[in-house]
């Protein structure tokens, strides 16, 4: 909803305006950002994102209007997950000669949300995944469907205007398969299991339950995606 639309709704039919949060602003008030944290003020804590092209906020289930770029055709996508290192884990995405590499934090662990995001894409939805990497927010966006393909864009918000690190057109199946299969393989590996408590959940309090998420990786496998892409259970 744009500012004009909000003012019109408040003036004509206030009962149609529903509460979202106490404060939702593109630019946090000066002096408050340091007190409350940027995500509280900008809506990222609620997965709301400001759409610079449309000039309005987008709910978690609404796709952004991303600025037009040089969207390259891609046959496949490469996803790599590095070993954890004191609460950080490197993620690399590659497609059509474009590369995005960033490190995710155990404080804002994005991996529990990765499989549901992939399931949404596989089911025909437009979906985005926001990843807070402590200072910059990465975005994985699936928009503009054409036939069995989508525009896949990896963004970061380090600048006033979203930076497009990857911008490709790829089939839904290739996108999901390219991320899901190596993700599950790495997640279920012995190497990750051995380093999980020491390097990823290193700051957790001790938990005597050996099956808890403090002591071993949680499940990320999807029966639906396994059936579609041949993942071994």
For the largest sheet, list the strands in their spatial order: 3-10-9-8-7
- Contiguous runs where pLDDT drops below 50 for at least 5 residues: 31-43
Shape: globular
| Percent of residues in beta strands | 25-35%
The radius of gyration is 19 Å
| Largest sheet, strands/sense/barrel | 5 strands, mixed
Amount of helix:
25-40%
Describe the structure.
This protein is of the alpha+beta class. It folds into two domains: 3-58, no CATH class; 72-229, no CATH class. The chain is built from seven helices and ten strands. The chain has helices at 3-12, 33-36, 38-42, 111-122, 172-187, 190-200, 223-229, and strands spanning 49-51, 56-58, 72-73, 78-81, 88-95, 98-105, 128-132, 137-146, 149-156, 163-171. It has a five-stranded mixed sheet with strand order 3-10-9-8-7. Strands 4-5-6 form a three-stranded antiparallel sheet. Strands 1-2 form a two-stranded antiparallel ribbon. The longest helix has 16 residues, at 172-187. Mean pLDDT is 84; it is low at 31-43.
């Amino acid at each position: 909803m744009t500012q004009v639309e909000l003012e019109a709704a408040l003036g004509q039919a206030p009962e149609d305006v529903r509460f979202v949060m106490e404060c939702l602003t593109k630019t946090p008030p000066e002096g408050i950002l340091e007190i409350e944290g940027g995500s509280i003020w900008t809506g990222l804590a609620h997965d709301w994102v400001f759409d610079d092209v449309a000039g309005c906020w987008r709910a978690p289930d609404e796709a952004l209007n991303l600025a037009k770029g040089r969207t390259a055709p891609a046959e496949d996508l490469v996803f790599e997950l590095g070993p954890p290192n004191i609460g950080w884990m490197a993620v690399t995405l590659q497609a059509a000669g474009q590369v995005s590499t960033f490190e995710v934090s155990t404080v804002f662990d994005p991996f529990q949300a990765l499989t549901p995001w992939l399931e949404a894409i596989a089911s025909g939805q437009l979906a985005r995944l926001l990843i807070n990497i402590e200072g910059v927010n990465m975005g994985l966006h699936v928009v503009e469907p054409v036939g069995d393909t989508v525009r896949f864009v990896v963004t970061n918000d380090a600048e006033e205007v979203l930076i497009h690190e990857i911008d490709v057109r790829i089939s839904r199946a290739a996108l999901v398969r390219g991320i899901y299969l190596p993700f599950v393989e790495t997640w279920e590996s012995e190497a990750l299991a051995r380093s999980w408590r020491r390097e990823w959940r290193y700051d957790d309090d001790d938990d005597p339950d050996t099956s808890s998420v403090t002591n071993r990786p949680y499940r990320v496998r999807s029966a639906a995606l396994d059936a579609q892409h041949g993942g071994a259970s």
